[in-house]
From TrEMBL:
SUPFAM superfamilies: Acyl-CoA N-acyltransferases (Nat)
Signal peptide: none
Name under which the protein is recorded: RimJ/RimL family protein N-acetyltransferase
Keywords linked to the UniProt accession: Acyltransferase, Transferase
Keyword field contains Transferase: yes
PROSITE patterns: GNAT
InterPro entries to which the protein is assigned, alphabetical: Acyl_CoA_acyltransferase (IPR016181), Bact_Acetyltransf (IPR050832), GNAT_dom (IPR000182)
Residue ranges of every copy of the N-acetyltransferase domain listed in the record: 28-173
Presence of keyword Electron transport: no
Lineage of origin: Bacteria, Bacillati, Actinomycetota, Actinomycetes, Pseudonocardiales
């Protein structure tokens, strides 16, 4: 598949087996995100600090992504500024995105989510789902902008985008 380009943002297929790509993702995470923002928590002290062991664990986490998941580099200009993913299952497609701090608050997440919605709809999925926290105001706004039905429960915001409606809007253009 060719790269998909939106204003200043490129969503490019990510091959975690490619050492250079994985190193670029780890570097972006270390310089612009907390470990808990990009990978499952561990039991080590100081959960917001990057250590060499955590960097290596994150690289292993990236390489161990399941086959039903498609991962993408979020690139601004030539810099990797985050990672996005689509995980396919019978019920639809689950998505997740993280962006480095310098890429936040500038609409990049909204552009990326739009590209992910388009890819999931083009693949024929019925729905796209995502989870975030109520305090992630930017993610909630982006999900709302892309037509998500939002439900808050037990400290989590669950979002569902009806991709049939997305395809119908696209065919009427």
């Amino acid at each position: 598949m060719t790269d998909v380009v939106a204003p200043t943002v490129t969503l490019r297929a990510f091959d975690p087996a490619d050492g250079a790509e994985t190193a670029a993702v780890v570097a972006a995470a270390v310089s612009g995100a907390r470990p808990r923002e990009v990978m499952p928590p561990d039991d080590a002290p100081h959960p917001d600090d990057w250590t060499l062991a955590r960097e290596r664990a994150y690289a292993r986490f990236l390489r161990a992504r399941p086959a039903e998941e498609s991962s993408y580099l979020v690139v601004e200009g030539t810099a990797v500024v985050g990672v996005a993913r689509l995980r396919h299952d019978p019920a639809g497609v689950e998505t997740g995105v993280w962006l480095a701090r310098p890429a936040r608050g500038r609409g990049i997440g909204t552009v990326v989510l739009g590209l992910l919605v388009e890819r999931a709809a083009a693949a024929g999925a019925a729905r796209l789902v995502a989870d975030t926290t109520p305090d992630n105001v930017a993610a909630v706004a982006s999900l709302r902008r892309h037509g998500a039905d939002l439900r808050e429960q037990a400290g989590t915001v669950a979002a569902v985008v009806d991709l049939g409606a997305v395809r119908a809007r696209g065919s009427s253009r």
